[in-house]
TrEMBL record:
Pfam families: DNA_binding_1 (PF01035). Residues 9-91 form the Methylated-DNA-[protein]-cysteine S-methyltransferase DNA binding domain. Transmembrane segments: none annotated. Gene3D superfamilies: Winged helix-like DNA-binding domain superfamily/Winged helix DNA-binding domain. GO terms for molecular function: methyltransferase activity. Keywords: DNA damage, Methyltransferase, Transferase. InterPro entries: ATL_DNA_repair, MethylDNA_cys_MeTrfase_DNA-bd, MethylDNA_cys_MeTrfase_DNAb, WH-like_DNA-bd_sf. This is Cysteine methyltransferase. The lineage of its organism: Bacteria, Pseudomonadati, Bacteroidota, Flavobacteriia, Flavobacteriales. GO terms for biological process: DNA repair; methylation.
DNA sequence: AAGCTGACGACAA
DNA sequence: ATTGTCGCCAGCT
């Protein structure tokens, strides 16, 4: 049974969605929140990402804000780590701003 | 124990 | 168009 304590189902759900982000794609906090049924809890998604750091295989670098800006890059180890990870996946990122954001945007509500 | 903060987002003025 | 405030909920001081 639950060998480990539940980290609030909310966070778990966020992780589940984040893990399903395809390679070379990105999504936004609000999109994930919406898919969870908590459209106004975009903040919590970001907060969940904070806890995800060092937790599960949650590609937090694929989650950005609605503008396609790497708002959370500061939470990564390096200042450019997040951007480098994205570029490594073929995502064009300039000045922490994802290019063609709408093209690589992955909507968990629509595509999931 | 109570209050502030925080990886966002939408709306109001 | 720009700026400011509210909402959301959990974690941290």
């Amino acid at each position: 049974m639950g060998v480990k304590k539940e980290e609030t189902n909310f966070f778990e759900r966020v992780y589940e969605v984040a893990k399903q982000i395809p390679y070379g794609r990105v999504t936004s906090y609000g999109a994930i929140a919406k898919s969870l049924g908590a459209a106004k809890s975009a903040r919590m998604v970001g907060w969940a990402m904070n806890a995800c750091d060092g937790r599960e295989d949650v590609p937090a670098h694929r989650v950005v804000n609605r503008k396609g800006i790497l708002t959370g890059k500061h939470h990564f180890q390096g200042t450019n780590l997040m951007q480098q990870l994205l570029e490594s996946e073929g995502v064009e990122v300039i000045e922490s701003q994802i290019q063609d954001f709408d093209k690589i945007f992955w909507d968990p509500m629509t595509e999931l």
